[in-house]
What does this fold into?
Amino acid sequence: QQQQQQHALTPVESLLGRSGVRYLLGMIVQVEEGKYYLEDHTAQVPLNLSQASLLTDGFVTENSIVLVEGEAVDGVLHVHNMGSPIVENR
It folds into this structure.
């Protein structure tokens, strides 16, 4: 039997004061020229994409909705993996 892992989504505002890898769902926005943030209904956080792996075929652009795996350090979300949410049949 194949065992499936489950991960809880963390709201952006809950990153403050927490360590460790978190999973977030949000929209990529450019608040300042050349600075990208992940935004959800609670807050926004700057992104460090320098070590990010893209787990999606195609493109991730500004205003894309993405799933992000990363760790917040000093108020910046260091992205490990990022991709489009999985589409599921109803």
User: Anything to note?
Assistant: Strands lie at 21-32, 35-39, 44-48, 53-54, 65-73, 76-83. The chain has a mean pLDDT of 90. The longest strand covers residues 21-32.
